[in-house]
């Protein structure tokens, strides 16, 4: 089987020698409304720079209207305001990225993303009254920050719902803005705040069209309220049901993504940046056996064929930014050669160079065998990776295309890690 797989990769892959070759990928996509771009780690330079080049082409040539990333909504709003010109004070993308103070800050406070942010700002400035490309964070972790934003927005518009919001959020005060404390209290002792935030979210959703649209105020209020509600559910669940909390997180990301799409209306076209484990269809992996779903699977199920295109990423060896445990400072770690018999090993055996592989009706059957596919998280111990870093996957079902960078380098963080720990 291994020899046949390597030969199939040789027969159906194309070399990736530079940005111009990515035009072949854009052509293969057709005309989707969602393009999901993965990554095999949160700390690899080439995954960011390659996705940035694809993103520029999709915005410029295909009319894509926004980028949605695996980041917090409040922090990413700083980027959105900068690229759309709402922010009149910040002078550079580098200054804006200081908004990312939640661990692991290197995911977005890095040198590689700066070029894309500045490009988006220049692109938007050239379009005058036309739809401007946005940048949004759709993750679920921003419980406290999103609470602050809801209060701030309601105060700014002098909303009669302000006192109700303040009352709802007093439920969280005993937990000192510590996710861990809230998770234990709500998950084990059933002392949660679900009723309070549910009432507030219902109120805000009911009045969705009433709130001001100026500088996307209504969208910010809606998604921040949703983030509070889903984050509460996530932290309440994670202590006792790890698989269920995973599903809550990914369903929130889909809900946030769809909320942004509704905001843009018929012009909406989304580019999603997340880890392979979120965008690569979970039903084509052993995650399915554990009852886990993810963004890629849900978005595919919600949309007609041809409207969703999923691109996975991988590497054979190199270096990566990661930490030894949750919340501690990062360092540059060596990524060992891919485990023998894995997908990444087969891609390397088919030729030690960068390449792209497009899955289609003519070749999908050649890549139907389940195979280990490497996934590196923000916590990573290379010496133990063979015991838990390879996800059994049917690659031609999990993705529509795969980009393989044979040897990769670590991401370049802007600042040294010293932010507070967040679960």
UniProtKB/TrEMBL annotation:
SUPFAM superfamilies: EreA/ChaN-like
Pfam families recorded: Erythro_esteras
Protein name, per record: Erythromycin esterase-like protein
The species this protein was found in: Peribacillus deserti
């Amino acid at each position: 089987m291994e020899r046949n797989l390597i030969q199939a990769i040789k027969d159906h892959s194309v070399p990736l020698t530079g940005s111009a070759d990515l035009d072949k990928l854009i052509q293969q996509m057709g005309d989707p409304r969602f393009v999901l771009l993965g990554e095999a780690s949160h700390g690899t330079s080439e995954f960011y720079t390659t996705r940035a080049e694809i993103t520029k082409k999709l915005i410029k040539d295909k009319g894509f209207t926004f980028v949605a990333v695996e980041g917090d909504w409040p922090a990413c709003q700083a980027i959105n305001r900068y690229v759309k010109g709402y922010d009149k004070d910040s002078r550079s993308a580098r200054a804006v990225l200081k908004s990312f103070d939640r661990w692991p800050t290197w995911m977005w406070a890095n040198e590689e993303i700066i070029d894309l942010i500045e490009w988006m700002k220049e692109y938007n400035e050239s379009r005058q009254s036309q739809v401007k490309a946005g940048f949004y964070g759709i993750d679920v972790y921003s419980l406290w920050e999103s609470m602050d934003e809801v209060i701030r927005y309601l105060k700014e518009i002098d909303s009669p719902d302000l006192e109700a919001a303040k009352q709802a959020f007093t439920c969280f005060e005993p937990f000192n803005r510590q996710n861990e404390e809230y998770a234990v209290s709500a998950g084990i002792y059933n002392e949660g705040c679900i009723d309070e935030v549910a009432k507030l979210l219902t109120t805000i959703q009911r009045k969705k069209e009433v709130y001001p649209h100026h500088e996307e105020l209504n969208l910010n209020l809606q998604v921040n309220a949703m983030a509070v509600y889903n984050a509460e559910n996530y932290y309440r669940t994670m202590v006792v049901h790890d698989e269920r909390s995973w599903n809550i997180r990914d369903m929130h990301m889909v809900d946030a993504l769809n909320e942004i799409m509704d905001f843009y209306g018929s012009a909406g076209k989304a580019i999603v940046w997340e880890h392979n484990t979120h965008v690569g269809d979970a039903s084509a992996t052993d995650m399915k056996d554990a009852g886990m779903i993810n963004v890629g699977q849900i978005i595919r199920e919600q949309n007609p064929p041809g409207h969703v295109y999923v691109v996975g990423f991988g590497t054979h060896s190199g270096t990566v930014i990661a930490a030894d445990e949750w919340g501690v400072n990062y360092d540059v770690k060596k990524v060992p050669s891919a485990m023998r018999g894995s997908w990444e090993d087969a891609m390397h055996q088919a030729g030690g160079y960068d390449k792209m592989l497009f899955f289609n009706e003519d070749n999908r059957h050649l890549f139907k065998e389940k195979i280990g596919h490497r996934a590196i998280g923000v916590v990573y111990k290379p010496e133990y990776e063979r015991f838990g870093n390879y996800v059994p996957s049917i690659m031609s079902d999990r993705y529509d295309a795969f980009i393989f960078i044979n040897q990769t380098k670590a991401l370049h963080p802007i600042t040294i890690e010293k932010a507070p720990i967040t679960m």
